[in-house]
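The following record pairs a protein chain with its ligand, flavin-adenine dinucleotide.
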Amino acid sequence: MKPFDVVIVGAGPAGSTAATALARRGRDVVLLDRAEFPRDKVCGDGIPPGTVGILNDLGMAESLRAAEFHAVDSLRLVSARGRDWRLRFRPKRTGADFFIAPRLRFDELLRSHALASGASFQVAQARAPVIENGCVVGVRADVGGVEREIRARIVIGADGATSAIARGLLPEKPPEAHRAVAIRAYLDDFDSLPRTIEFHFGARFAPGYAWVFPIGERLANVGVIVRTDRFKRRGVPIEALLREFIEGADLRVRGARFESLRDVATWQLPLAARVRVPRAFDGALLAGDAARLVDALTGEGIHNAVVSGKLAGEAADRALASGDVSRAALSADYENRLEAEVARLVRRSYRCQKYITAYPSVLEAMFVLAGAFRGRITRWLDRVSTDFEVVE
Ligand SMILES: Cc1cc2nc3c(=O)[nH]c(=O)nc-3n(C[C@H](O)[C@H](O)[C@H](O)COP(=O)(O)OP(=O)(O)OC[C@H]3O[C@@H](n4cnc5c(N)ncnc54)[C@H](O)[C@@H]3O)c2cc1C
């Protein structure tokens, strides 16, 4: 069988975006996923406007509008001692909203768009990259219980936090301080929910947080995220942390009940840390969570998944055009552009997490300062934010 131009493993935001970018350039591209779609992905479902802007540019404006995802317009931060900080925001630059979009629907929209753009899809569980003379030439995968080799000129590993492709290419797992564990659930018995995303900090979650992301008037995605090293050191089960949060005064008075939680599930996040990880190889690229691109402060990974998917698709297309799929060529294109687009923010987030949110007393002091210098901080946030106009 003739090799594909590109095999992409994983049809999440990174993989589907890469597939769309390549298919729109006329490349013969196949998306593999171990799951039948639509499928759930354990997530907070928060999709920032910058991401929506990129997807709009890739031809998704109409389908995203038609999906009518729930838009939010404000942020609430609550400190461990109950200090409450709120601000409103409006999208700038892209004009797109900040959505809370259940991944069951959002990811299917992205995958369908990749297929409509000309990519094909196959249910297959990748086991490992196929490497010949040091160069990746395909993927070994379980297709309907049969082990097969699917060959391609370039492989893009976009198979998430437990990526089989990354495991085959990167020698080491990230250390526990560069990973997080999170639990997510849906809760639909809130009395009423404003269009506000909420982050609640607490000594037991540090340097993580608990969240409430509204999806409707009474329905929210709720959860807790904790850095893996701290989580293991404390030894408190993550379900217990979620119960503590739901049964705390703030949520209880709004009607939330632990017994009403549904679709409770845990998953892990590979945080983008200071260390530069190789993301280009001879014949292969890594994108999204497989490339360890989750924001270490906020736990957001969808934006970097979409950015890296788009850049990986474009880099693969240029490498195919030049006939040079070597690590040197792919790195000079993909890794350098990724560095330019996401690195500054990733490093800032990593430093904030390491030196501020990891220490509840330092974070509490930041809340005090934020209260005292509210006007100045709001103006600063407005200036540094590329996606939001901070309005109060
Ligand atoms: C609880 C939780 C809350 C989060 N909340 C947010 C949030 O609100 N906003 C945000 O921006 N980010 C959030 N994140 C992070 C976000 O979910 C990820 O960063 C994002 O999904 C990464 O996209 P991806 O395409 O790289 O990988 P994924 O979305 O994980 O997609 C990977 C795909 O690969 C497939 N796959 C895996 N292994 C194989 C294999 N061996 N063979 C074939 N297919 C395979 C999977 O089935 C999946 O479809 C959260 C994460 C967690 C765990």
